[in-house]
Specification:
about 25% strand; transport; cell membrane; membrane; Rossmann fold; 4-stranded antiparallel beta sheet; ABC transporter ATP-binding protein
Length: about 280
């Protein structure tokens, strides 16, 4: 099991230069995330959610304020922080095993240890038997499982997820939400999810951070005091979801997704019967 990190975001602001003028993107973002916590971040388009993830992962360092991982300032990318994007970004000429193994290129492990670690993570994401399959032979959901395994194979302290299921159909998305919850509980690491889907945010998060735009700032942080696994159709779940949606009063409705409700019993019947894509 990976070490779970404490992440402290302290008065972070960010702007870009556009045609010689300063364009504020983030303004005075402060948030403390506990070890092993799952935090969901929601907000309308342009509120800076993905920019904040870029700062946490270390892709940009030109900002004001501090981002601290276990008390140390984040500087550049690191194996301590993994990330999964909406597009799986797998290499088409590599099979499942080798795509996941790319995450261990710089790891101080023997070849035998690397093979064992890759095998563990293939099993973790439910792809045993597909080790030699190539990306074009996989469904979108299977490809995202590979991307999650690749991000986890170094056992990072924090896993960042930028709309990881946004391109998937509703049923596959619901199953992968369940799988991500299972993986999070099994690995015990800190996870931060950026999503437009309020139901997804509530289903997975210990807290939901609501951001508002231009410049991006935190409007409110709402706790989700519900035990896992969560019943999407329960009154308590609906109340939390409605509390989050109320924070967006006055925002264009099209900028948020409220996924259609599905009975939890349908989603709990077991893993998808994955097939190679035709």
């Amino acid at each position: 099991m990976a070490h779970a990190a404490t992440l402290a975001i302290q008065q972070v602001s960010k702007q870009y230069e556009v045609k010689g003028e300063s364009l504020p993107v983030l303004s005075d973002i402060s948030l403390s995330i506990k070890p092993g916590e799952f935090v969901s971040i929601v907000g309308s388009s342009g509120c800076g959610k993905s920019t904040l993830l870029r700062l946490i992962i270390g892709l940009e360092e030109d900002y004001q304020g501090e981002i601290l991982l276990d008390g140390q300032r984040v500087r550049g990318t690191s194996l301590q922080r993994g990330i999964v994007f909406q597009e799986h970004r797998l290499f088409p000429w590599l099979n499942v095993r080798d795509n996941i193994g790319l995450g261990l290129l710089n790891a101080k492990l023997t070849e035998g240890q690397k093979r064992h670690t890759v095998r563990e993570h293939i099993e973790l994401v439910g792809l045993t038997g597909f080790e030699t399959a190539y990306p074009h032979q996989l469904s979108g959901g299977m490809s995202q499982r590979v991307a999650i395994a690749r991000a986890l194979v170094n056992r990072p302290e924090v896993l960042l997820l930028d709309e990881p299921f946004g391109a998937l159909d509703a049923l596959t998305r619901a199953h992968l939400q369940q799988e991500l919850r299972r993986i999070w509980q099994a690995e015990g690491i800190t996870m931060i999810l950026v999503t437009h889907d309020v139901e997804e945010a509530v289903y997975l998060g210990d807290r939901v951070v609501v951001m508002e735009p231009r410049p991006g700032r935190i409007r409110r942080v709402l706790p989700v005091p519900l035990a896992h696994p969560r019943e999407r159709t329960s009154l308590a779940f609906t109340q939390v979801k409605e509390a989050v949606l109320r924070e967006f009063a006055g925002h264009p409705e099209a900028e948020l997704i409220e996924a259609p409700l599905k009975p939890e019993r349908e989603l709990a019947e077991g893993p998808l019967n994955w097939h190679f894509a035709v």
